[in-house]
Every structure is written in C-alpha cells, then in structure tokens.
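Example A, followed by Example B.
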Amino acid sequence: MVREDRMIYESIDSLGQSRNWEIKDIKELKLENPYELVVEPFRGGKYSLHLEGQGMEPEVFKAQADRVTSARIAR
C-alpha cells in the first residue's frame, strides 16, 4: 500500500516480513524491472518486493520516486 506519507508491505504468510516505512525515511527506491521494487531505508537493510499482476508502470514508479526525493530533501 502506498499512502501520502508512507509505504506499507503486509506479508500474507510471514508477519515478520511485513514493513512500514514513512516516506521521509526511505533513502532510495529502485525499480529493477516492472515486477521488482527495491526499498532502501536510511536505517535497516534493503527490501526487495516482488510484485504480481501487471507489475508497476514506469509513471507510477516515477511518481513514488519523486515523492521519496521530495521527502528526503525536506528531511
């Protein structure tokens, strides 16, 4: 889930794999391909999300990356 101020990943089979990042705490987002999004927070390790369905469109990724960049500048 992507909200105005955070990104949330809820694992359906392993609660310990779930993550909740405030946008301002994300150092970098990378879209390795339409089905793999990598989140690198300022604290903690990188997290690779494997997307299903149609994956993530480049314009959707760009909007999220821009949001992360803006939050990082304001940090």
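Example B, a separate protein, is given below in the same form.
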Amino acid sequence: MPDKKNWGKWDKTHKTGGGVVYCLGFVGALIYYIQHATTIWLGLLGFLKALVWPAFLVYKLLEFFKL
C-alpha cells in the first residue's frame, strides 16, 4: 500500500531521459533556425519553431508513412 503522506509527490528514483532529449533537440533546432534566419523576425519565428520541434517531427513522420 502506498504511503499516504507522500502520495502525489514525484519519486526521484524514476527518472527518464525525455527532458535531456528534448533539451538537446531544442538547442539543435534553435541553432539551425537562427543560423538560417535572414531577419530578426525570422529569428524570432525560428525560436518559436524550436520550442515545438517534436510536433514538426511527428507531423513529418505521419506524412511519410501516409497515416
């Protein structure tokens, strides 16, 4: 039976690497988009795109597999 006083608290023994993967992907996408930006507005758009890069990845994968 779970301990009621610790119910709902995050257990530090169950860590995942998802945050690290997202962070590395964010930095990579940010560098890519900023590097190709020709104006400040395209740089800002690149920053916003870098925040949601997983959505672009899933969209392109679904498009590739024609689902």
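On Example B: DSSP finds three helices and no strands in the chain.
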